[in-house]
Design brief:
The structure is a homodimer of 325-residue chains. Chain A is of the alpha/beta class and 325 residues long. Chain A folds into two domains: 166 residues, NAD(P)-binding Rossmann-like Domain (Rossmann fold), CATH 3.40.50; 121 residues, Dihydrodipicolinate Reductase, domain 2 (2-Layer Sandwich). Chain A is 34% helix and 26% strand. Chain A has eleven helices and 14 strands. In chain A, strands 3-2-1-4-5-6-14 form a seven-stranded parallel sheet, sandwiched between helices. A four-stranded mixed sheet of chain A has the order 8-9-10-11. The longest helix of chain A is centred in the last third of the chain and has 21 residues. The two termini of chain A are 26 Å apart. Chains A and B meet through helix 1, helix 3, helix 4, strand 13 and helix 10 of A and helix 1, helix 3, helix 4, strand 13 and helix 10 of B. Strand 13 of chain A pairs antiparallel with strand 13 of chain B, so a sheet runs across the interface.
Chain lengths: 325, 325
Amino acid sequence: MKIAIYGYGNLGKGVECAVHNACDAELVGVFTRRDPEAVKTLTGAAVYKADDLPKFKGKIDVVIICGGSATDLPKMTPALAKDFCVVDSFDTHAKIPQHFENVDEAAKAAGTVAVISAGWDPGMFSINRLYASAILPNGNDYTFWGRGVSQGHSDAIRRIEGVVDARQYTVPVEEALAKVRSGENPTLTTRQKHTRECFVVAEEGADLEEIRRKIVEMPNYFADYDTTVTFVTLEELRKNHSALPHGGRVIRTGKTGLNNENSHCIEYSLQLDSNPEFTASVLLACARAADKLCARGESGCKTMFDIAPADLSDLSGAELRKTML
Amino acid sequence: MKIAIYGYGNLGKGVECAVHNACDAELVGVFTRRDPEAVKTLTGAAVYKADDLPKFKGKIDVVIICGGSATDLPKMTPALAKDFCVVDSFDTHAKIPQHFENVDEAAKAAGTVAVISAGWDPGMFSINRLYASAILPNGNDYTFWGRGVSQGHSDAIRRIEGVVDARQYTVPVEEALAKVRSGENPTLTTRQKHTRECFVVAEEGADLEEIRRKIVEMPNYFADYDTTVTFVTLEELRKNHSALPHGGRVIRTGKTGLNNENSHCIEYSLQLDSNPEFTASVLLACARAADKLCARGESGCKTMFDIAPADLSDLSGAELRKTML
């Protein structure tokens, strides 16, 4: 399977590592909007101009698009699906239906397969919400994130005047987790589910109390949460908070029996040292599925909901039944 | 979706409850090898002779076969797949490839869809082994069962002379779980992973020490485990050990990064008040998938590996993308 990486940030580097460690994939190259001369890849993979990608038509099986969901992917994915099978990690939940329609139209017209919104949420967490609700229709599901770094929230803090750098951790509330697992189907507010921990480097002489106030009162990002702010030095931030761990869990509790007398709890959890590398690993498995689906003559936009688990694996159906069923 | 239940033990009763609680399914009837007059269903569903099932051809969408894996299913599933879409919970892991071949031949010839080995292990646990290994190829997975009742082990104790009744619980070793989650990829012996707790009712005057010895030394079932035996009265057994709880977890830890510098842990866990009712709920979701696949013109034997998650749900693709992705 010949893979191209389109966009080379943390996610693109993660895909490069995943391809490097896979038995059935090889990397054709990295395609970037920056000057290719200025980009040095981790594995020494070739770097090309993004605009040169169409020249590789027929030489690439799947393009893994590693752009941002806000402005990149809504344009890139439908455009690239006209020439290639593609995979993206579009994660703006509310805009997925529209993105799906746009990509589906392009892919169907071109006879390509495009897998969108792959990763862990959306992605593996979504699949687990689906499986659990199909099995236990009489129940509720809950998604908790963390403990992990939210890059969006870290960026929001950095935009405050007087802030040099910052890292924000999303932390699930243990008490809420216990209530959910008990099967009592609690109604939980935003504040009851997660807390937010901020580690902030301030400029010398900055008004720390003012920065703290601006963070904890920030609408959408922090106002609805119990937020703690800890000021650290730049050295401390680099030493203790430079990684990008994340994770979380999807829990569904539900009832069965003639009179709903039996309770069940399904829990799927992830604990990730590197959010982008794990996401990249899911993207590569989805690239494998896109390649298989395309080879079977399918086309159009797919999500992980539409992909049979076996299509993510490099093992044959017979091998899977023998070793994993 | 019109469902028939073939075989009416604990699993058949579980399917009856699941259909009763589902929005999109109705029960045509229960088919039994016993005298139908002697079988009283939980919901008042009609009971027919097993031999009368062929008369219902065209009036049933999917037959859920609730027989045993040892002798029933190897015969029943290929035979019934000649007339109906079917689902079974065949769970003799080593014999799945042969069962698959037999059922596939029958279903392909008849143009029906047969889903085999559905449930939680095989079933949901298998799917989770597959997803996790496709995402983290450089890793190891571990399956733990319990705390829960093993009916096979309970039966083995009951066959010992002087035993009136017994219940056996399989219990995962917490220390082993912690080692696995830490990512150190431990090699664990059978004894290190699970313990076995037996609650036994003995005949009056029976040699309790002799019964205990026969249990803990029983090859295959107990000899490789640390086993505890507690003698209880029949009243205590009925009062405290009459339910059929079970569960367990599939854990995969794996590495990513250029030099495998990042660790990840994926864990899927189930905690079930009623093993047969949860298994039945999975079977009903698979019946929905069999019905959809057949309507799309597919045929042959499938496992949960071959079923896209969306096909287990009664929601449309657009609804799923909007509400669960």
